[in-house]
Hints:
Layout: H1 37-49, H2 55-61, E1 75-76, E2 81-84, E3 89-92, E4 98-107, E5 110-117, E6 122-128, H3 135-146
Antiparallel strand pairs: 1-2, 2-3, 3-4, 4-5, 5-6
Amino acid sequence: MCCWACSSKRQAACPTGTTIYSYPPIGSPDGGAYVTAGDLDRFLRELKAGTLLSPKSTAAFFTPQVLLTPQVLHHEQDDWNQMYGYAMWFALDRTGHVIFAEKEGINAGASAVIRHYPDEDVNVVLLANTQMGAWEPLRAAHRLVTAGR
């Protein structure tokens, strides 16, 4: 079978243009794994608590790892700079202070983001069933979380 939507034995004949090996009906291309928003929130909390990694690795995980120089600056927003770390990327204010750390993803028909605001000790987890569905709610959540700054 080519994919979950047809019975073709050849990918070229598949009307969806995908295969079960690239988009399984449950989960995603990472091998079919799936999580809930609660799972992702718990994952971030366990990381911060130091129960998943050693203290040294936990500190490194939540620390930007790429030097902030014009040569390696990936992206500049109106009020923050973006830097990469281990698995997550970071938004830093102009003084170098971490505003938030996040990991986001997008796939055909889905988008998701997990974001941690260290000053507020708030996690934002958004899962959407559209490719662009997570971004506008994320902007609204960001405004709400940072409104008191």
